[in-house]
């Protein structure tokens, strides 16, 4: 179902919700204070946006899992470096191409390092994230953990559960 956030002159096609996903052409189309539309107050739409075009697509179950992860990791602020990427942008910056995990709405790169990375990795496994990518070399600010909860699908080259490094 396509819905419009009324009263702001928004395009009627700006925000799309389904049983499983919420999508917007641009993150500013989503009213971050609308707790029915966007219940994940610790992870606002702008953190989920494609860094190249501002589009947002999230899988609701993955957002719930991310919120659970945050709670298991002590309810501390958790900066998301990268979440949704549109197919064109993912093709540009990732070897996974236009259909990689970040295009599916359930992948999150969390800016954590050292002890915090240990805590977050353990929490990620405990709450059922099935894909964990470890980037823990170099400058502290560039270190992160990728987490996603994709399902095993060998036909689509999606092997889960798994761990990789960058
Ligand atoms: Zn994009």
User: For the CA atoms, what is the radius of gyration?
Assistant: 16 Å
In percent terms, what proportion of residues is strand?
15-25%
Give helix and strand order, one letter per element, not per position.
EEEHEHEHEHEEE
Top CATH class: Alpha Beta
Shape: globular
Number of E-type strands: 9
First and last CA, distance: 38 Å
Q: What is the number of helical segments per DSSP (H or I, 4+ residues)?
A: 4
Strand order of the largest sheet: 5-6-8-7-9
> How much helical structure, as a percent, in the residues?
10-25%
- How many structural domains? 1
- Give start-end ranges of low-pLDDT stretches: 4-11
Give me a quick take on this structure:
Helices cover 22% and strands 20% of the residues. The chain is α+β, with helices and mostly antiparallel strands. It has a single domain, classed as 2-Layer Sandwich (Muramoyl-pentapeptide Carboxypeptidase, domain 2), CATH 3.30.1380.
């Amino acid at each position: 179902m396509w819905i419009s956030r009324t009263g702001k002159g928004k395009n009627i096609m700006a925000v799309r919700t389904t049983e499983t996903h919420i999508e917007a052409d641009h993150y500013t189309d989503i009213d971050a204070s609308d707790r029915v539309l966007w219940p994940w107050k610790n992870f606002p739409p702008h953190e989920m946006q494609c860094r190249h075009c501002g589009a947002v697509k999230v899988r609701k179950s993955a957002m719930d899992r991310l919120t659970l992860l945050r709670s298991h990791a002590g309810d501390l602020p958790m900066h998301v470096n990268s979440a949704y990427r549109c197919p064109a942008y993912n093709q540009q910056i990732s070897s996974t191409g236009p259909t990689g995990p970040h295009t599916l709405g359930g992948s999150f790169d969390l800016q954590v390092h050292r002890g915090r990375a240990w805590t977050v990795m353990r929490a990620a496994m405990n709450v059922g994230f099935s894909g964990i990518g470890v980037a823990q070399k170099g400058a502290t600010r560039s270190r992160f953990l990728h987490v996603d909860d994709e399902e095993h699908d060998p036909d689509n080259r999606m092997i889960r559960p798994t761990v990789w490094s960058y």
